[in-house]
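Sat 14:20. Reprocessing the chain from the morning session after the first attempt stalled halfway. Input below, unchanged.
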Amino acid sequence: MTSSTTVSSPPALYALVLNWNGWRVTLRCLESLLRMPSPLPLRILVWDNGSSDGSVERIQAWARGELAADTQMPAALQPCVLPPWPKPVDLQVLDEHGTEALHAPLILVRGTRNLGYAGGNNAALRLALRQHDCALLWVLNNDVLVAADCATELCRAHAQDPHDRPIGSVIYDFDHPERLQAWAGQRLGHGWLVAPRHAREHQRLDFLIGASLLVSRARAQALGFFNEDYFLNAEDLEYTYHYGREFRRAHPGEEPFLVAGRIWHQESATQAQRRERQAYYFTRNLLYAARRISLGHALTTFVYGCARSLLNLLRGRPALARGTARGLLHYLRGIKGALPS
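Finished this time. Tokens:
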């Protein structure tokens, strides 16, 4: 068999969902995607990042109808997942180095190791781009639910756009469905590089958030791939910021990004060890991203990071203080990639 779908296949929308030890939220995301109408044939590509919690087996069991997705959520969101999508679901399972053509509406790739957010999504992007029917690529967090009209709105926005711009979605809070988390992206601020999250509708955006990010095949090839030096956090900032800056120079008065569709994103409480790890990546990678923008951004981000570490310590948050301080130190030492053990 060839390594790509046949040339005669109609153009398709590829939704790329990265899973790492998170099968419960991934199943919920898949339920919402499957019941969502799409103007283009929809292929859902789940890349498992070497999970150790049995995610691959549980996703397969769910597809066979032997395991139900979690439906504990605010009543306003239950129509996203209920009633459950009819099972079995046509599921194609392949290894990370598989060369067979993708033909099923749902594809599960068994990765052997944790490549991080950047590496896992890059692997999924490369696989999708090898398929002749791949017209649009939609990077999605696995901890989101999509509105029923999300694909329709995204595809409509793309079809009407003469500039082939990246498209983000309006992000609402999973636990408080009416609360706005972000208007598809954020603006750059002073100090901590990213402005505090006081989300406002129709605000100017300097970059898109990767929780929902749609690009055409041509735009994906022009943008390239996520920076794998980061491993986790800030990849989406760098992926879209520099494009946006160049777009504004070439098209004064026009915005570089479009906003279409709605998703609900769950920001779950994490254990102290994971919070420390998140603080580490957030701090270190924002500094690398800031340095690529300007020395001034890097200096103010570093000073503000020092203040954040001290403030967390004074407020009795030692895990966050340690993670932030370690991120600052590793930035100075030039350490990139996964957090050293």
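The longest strand covers residues 12-19.
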